[in-house]
């Protein structure tokens, strides 16, 4: 995540006026959680960080974004949780950032708390991106903020699913775009629906 997009995450989280916790889908090694968590701590909020910590499709061996150093030698699987925990500990955010380790859809199915802010940056394949949208967007409170990362209008710049869910939010009539920084889009819930 480029610094300007991280600072935009922090700004959005700092300016939220709706009560409730923040939640991010897809934390990887914790970079976005540091930006969101710092704002959450300053506001007396909690950031729930949902990730299975096995890496998305594009993080697996043979893909462009694979990082061999993140593979657990005991299991042979990606495991970003230790790196995430180190980042949160290093920033003294353990009292503010709550790691929720599991599949996004499984956690969303049991979630009941309205969210002041939702940041979607999970799997970028069509299935995972749309499942994250369908599972989590209904929990954004009226007036709450929806942030979507890696939204690229030009297909040559990046994958389509984040752009597709961004358009779903706009087309639903429930969200209005309030900001764009790089590939990060900020929307506010202004109506009903998903």
Structural features, described:
This protein has a seven-stranded mixed β-sheet, with helices on both faces. The chain has helices at 3-15, 31-43, 81-90, 104-110, 126-136, 161-171; strands at residues 22-25, 47-51, 97-101, 115-120, 140-148, 175-181, 184-189. The protein has one domain: Vaccinia Virus protein VP39 (Rossmann fold). The chain is 34% helix and 22% strand. It is an alpha/beta fold and 194 residues long. Helix 1 (3-15) runs parallel beside helix 2 (31-43) and helix 4 (104-110) runs parallel beside helix 5 (126-136).
List keywords for this structure.
194 residues; 7-stranded mixed sheet; Rossmann fold; alpha/beta; 22% strand; globular
Protein topology:
Blueprint: H1 3-15, E1 22-25, H2 31-43, E2 47-51, H3 81-90, E3 97-101, H4 104-110, E4 115-120, H5 126-136, E5 140-148, H6 161-171, E6 175-181, E7 184-189
Helix pairs in contact: 1-2, 4-5, 5-6
